[in-house]
Write a structure and sequence with these properties.
- This protein is of the alpha/beta class and 502 residues long.
- It is 32% helix and 27% strand.
- It contains 17 helices and 24 strands.
- It has a six-stranded mixed sheet with strand order 6-9-10-3-11-12, with helices on both faces. A six-stranded mixed sheet has the order 18-21-22-15-23-24, with helices on both faces.
- The protein is globular and about 70 Å long.
Amino acid sequence: MPDAILTARGITKKFPGVIALKDVSFDLRAGEIHALCGENGAGKSTLIKLLSGLHPHGSYEGELIVDDQPAHFHGIADAERAGLAVIYQELALIDEMSVAENIFLGTAPRRGPFIDWSKLHRDAGALLQRFGVAIDPAAPLRRLGVGEKQLVEIVKALGKDSRILILDEPTAALAEHEVQTLLTILRDLRTRGLSCVYISHRLDEVFALADRITILRDGATIWTKATVETSKADVISAMVGREITDLFPRRTSGILRVNHLSVTDPHTRQFRLHDISFTIARGEVLGLGGLMGAGRTELLMHLFGAWGERRGGEVELNGTSLPLLKPHQILKRGLALVSEDRRRYGLVLPESIGFNLSLSSLRQLVRGGLLDQGREFRKNDHAFRSLHVKAPGLESTVGKLSGGNQQKVVLGKALMTEPSVIFLDEPTRGIDVGAKQEIYELVRQLTDAGKAVVLVSSELPELIGLSDRILMLHEGRIGGEFTRAEATQERLLAAAMGQPAA
């Protein structure tokens, strides 16, 4: 058996009132990609923070071993000196800086006391090219989409020439071609001897990439197996402690109409959406797909009043013209948006679950000019329980929840406005298969209640499984429209790339 270069042995980590890890053991071999799988709340994030020094030596029981020697990490710098680099699910980048500045943040080349800007951009460009990422190193980071920012974060970590790379949901926001780019990069790094801990809820990626898989559930190690010795069904069963069938439940059953809509970018004044037309009826899910940059998020943000300048076309809701309004006015009309970037646009992280749940519906909870706190609590409590948020109570800080539970709070906040049309932008990004199934079931309940759902997803099986019809966008235009019966991954990808369907 090959020697391990990194071993976690008998790890137990406790927080007040919670045991996050219980006697967890895990090892990583040289030149291995080892997948770590489990539901949100299973202990994966705690283990990562412990391996990276965020939970320092002495704050847990058990031992870490690197290269057959005890490792006492008292901070991130200690872990990095040992050759570990971590890419977290939530990005650690600065929007006000350029791509190059972010890649070399804290390590920028200097000429005397000053930054050598020419070398900075030259080195960043070479690094991006080395890993096949087509992004301008001089571009302001704020102009990039979430997927492109994720690629910058990955290149930043790879540029440290670390021996051990830990990736937490690295493809959650990536389009399919970007996913394939990353997988190719990781396979190449493996041949050079780099070791990788790969955390993902996308089992297709896990089985295409990983040499071994370790399952965590409820803070404990369930098993470690070679990938060739297990199956996706076994992994799902081990993760959730039960079998999951019918991930995409079917419904038993034109509220919104968009006619020839064209929209320009408010910064560049260039057209980003061209002649978009579609309708959606009550009880229907309209899927919206396309490659990164195709205009999916921009379309939802514009319809919600949060982005773009309308240069042509019209929007109707319930047969009445819907002008370009502010988001709080759009909410009153019965439209709600669940953003793809929940931590930035969906939540106030330092505040409680209850504060966040009622944030968009406070006007409905006012009586005589004062907030009816009793009614607020009852509605919050109903949302909290019906969405099965895993937390001690409404007073829990939302920033401390797992990604799946944060997403439930964002969904609950939107639903408490009692919308008739709901825009869901990547609602299952970065959450585990169990939480995904709960959101799929929620979509079914919404459409059964007569709501209309516009769903953006980068996962083609999810798009096909949930949608009644699918629109694929290509460079801001509709590249194709498909019924569920017509949709295949090949046809959808062809439309996303501007190719005629076979």
